[in-house]
């Protein structure tokens, strides 16, 4: 049974226009430190090696961490929970009794 569907090409995607410098208009956006932009991308990702979690950090204009996912409070909860857990022993394969010393 044939399918009555056709796919048309869309052609080239146009480039966005280049911004025009206008010295007569003052910038109304917040001043952003070039040093903070060059140092870290915003948001940035890091791995907490103790927990094995990826942490997304959002930085302010000065480059300091303003917010993170998970939050610092949540990371502390993960850390305190991990500290209270005993190191589990590996489970023996099904049907095999653990060795007695």
Task: Describe it.
The protein is of the alpha+beta class. The protein has a domain at 43-84. Helix content is 19%, strand content 17%. The protein has 2 helices and 3 strands, in the order αβββα. It has helices at 34-39, 72-84; strands at residues 44-48, 53-59, 65-69. It has a 3-stranded antiparallel β-sheet with strand order 1-2-3, with no helix packed on it. A hairpin with a 5-residue loop joins β2 and β3 (65-69). It is flat, with a radius of gyration of 27 Å. It starts with 33 loop residues before the first helix and ends in a 17-residue tail after the last helix.
List the main descriptive attributes of the protein structure presented here:
101 residues, 3-stranded antiparallel beta sheet, alpha+beta
What is this structure's SSE topology?
Elements lengths: L33 H6 L4 E5 L4 E7 L5 E5 L2 H13 L17
Short synopsis of the structure:
The chain has a three-stranded antiparallel beta sheet with strand order 1-2-3, with no helix packed on it. The chain has a domain at 43-84. It has helices at residues 34-39, 72-84, and strands at residues 44-48, 53-59, 65-69.
